[in-house]
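Q: Can I see a sequence and its folded structure?
A: Here is a first one.
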Amino acid sequence: MIISVTNKQRRYALINLVILLLLTILVKLNFIIPVGIDNIFHNLFNNLQSGFGDIVMTVAAFLGNPIVDFIYILALTGVLIIAKLRIPAIWAILTILSGNIVLKIFQIIINRPRPMGHLLSDSSASFPSSYIFGLFVVIFIIKILVIPNVNTLLTQIVMNWVIILIGLMAIMSRIYFNAHFVSDTVASVMFAYSWVIFSATCYGKLAHYLKKRLVLLENDEI
């Protein structure tokens, strides 16, 4: 099986969901613990703003932009199709699309307002961050689908560090530009991990269904 997850990863995903549920309840109730921490980081990043910081964070924001996320997933899908791995390519697209739908429902239910001073273009609900969710879904797909199949250990290490750095910089940029609170981004990362692991757990059934239903895929590797 090209895409597989361990029982340990499933346990982590389940623990993530439990913590995420607790965090969601606390945010919805405007409880002092997440709200207080959010305000501390909000004020800290406001005090750190500078011309150089604006440039660095603008680059970081670009790398995590939803449009760029879409380019990432298209590039990954293209590579998979070229490698004749069409079923994993379909899985990757379905994972990010279905995850965004669930996240949007999540946002509507919680309906948390954005931090003070956010950009006018950031008009949707704040919790969880769809911006960070989309990026980290791509990151976690790369971590379970691409990196394990890279031949050299050094390349695996470099790829891991690069995608983690991009993810952390994107998180910082959202807080820096007052687009999200810290808890919004933390919730998104947790949900992204759990969603990708859940989706990977279902991969086997999806793959066998597609091979059975679609003649073009009946000889594809799964």
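Q: Show me another, different protein.
A: A second, unrelated one:
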Amino acid sequence: MDKIDLKERIETLARPVVQALGLNIWGLEIVPGARLLVRLYVDRPGPLTSAADQEPGRSAPPSQTAALSSQGLDPGQLFPVLSATVDDCAEISRHLSLALDVEDCLAEPYVLEVSTPGLARRFFRLAQMIPYVGDVLDVRLRGGQNGQEGEAQRPHASRLRGVLLAVEDAAFTLRLASVTPEGEVLQEAETVRIAWTGVVKACRVPVFCQPLRPGKSGKKAGGRAASSKRLTGNNISASWRATVGGSHES
């Protein structure tokens, strides 16, 4: 089967156990190599995940829930589960690796990895970008097909970085920007409308602001203030990463 059919088949096999844990499939990567790498990303539905296929999640492990409730505390407020846990990823990996072997989907040796998308999450569908309007993205474009429209077109650009301004049905708009080592987001005047069909890869760029040293001001040399963006709760509320929760070699 071709790569698209293979992805659909693997996601179909993974979906029952993923949804049983109150999670969503965020995306799937298949990377050729000496052993085929199958990397499944899962995430917990919430305000910072795609609105599609929402499933109810859990707020805390049962043991912690019972202990906190007995003390009159709200475990959902004290221990919000922001993403899949390492145990979740390991359980998905066990079930999916068994299903792949039984169904014999992969004719060659493979390595299966299950993880959360993390802070620098890759977007697999345009709708996934909607909750991240205002964040910085890195976008890699197809060679010879830049997919750009609108105010700014850069014919030779294969990679763009900018602040996500808007998401449409088939395109999104960036305001071109750079990020300094201190975590300042310097926005340009140009905006670029990018067709999703022209995108090879689009990822969120985590922005961490360095604390100012004593005696330092927030201005650049020459007295010109820099436009900056701080990492707020909206940026980090669903962003801790469970490294590779499960790995399987066959």
